[in-house]
Specification:
InterPro entries: Syndetin_C, VPS50. One of its GO terms (cellular component) is EARP complex. By secondary structure, the protein is mainly α. The protein is elongated and about 60 Å long.
């Protein structure tokens, strides 16, 4: 056994937690269909994850906690709110944003509205190229 100094341990925990949270969002972005119950389970799973983390480590606040919570909450947005949300949240990848539009609004909006939202995502991504 090798003793790791507390500051080093905290840095390692922070990186692991940040990676785990980013991986959760990436996993949610790979969802093909999501019901209201599925969205609720996403929130419940993340809360369970946070509870376990709080027992394992003293790192506070949890890194990227808001990143995951904000993404999950976006599944509940309406078409009009989604357009504003997309413009305000540039921290998510094009793929993650596109999936939100296709999965959470896919069955609730018409094709023209979906194309408008996807165009907003594409316009946001264009300056990076």
């Amino acid at each position: 056994r090798v003793r790791i100094p507390l500051p080093v341990s905290n840095i390692l925990w922070e990186h692991c937690i940040r990676l785990a949270n980013r991986t959760l969002v990436e996993g949610y972005a790979n969802v093909k269909k999501c019901s209201n119950e599925g969205r609720a389970l996403m929130q419940l799973d993340f809360q369970q994850f946070l509870m376990k983390l709080e027992k394992l480590t003293d790192i506070r606040p949890i890194p990227d906690k808001e990143f995951v919570e904000t993404y999950i909450k976006a599944y509940y947005l309406t078409e009009n709110d989604m357009e504003r949300w997309i413009k305000e949240h540039r921290e998510y990848s094009t793929k993650q944003l596109t999936n939100l539009v296709n999965v959470c609004l896919g069955s609730h909006i018409n094709k023209k509205a979906r194309q408008k939202l996807l165009a907003a995502i594409d316009d946001m991504d264009r300056p990076k190229r």
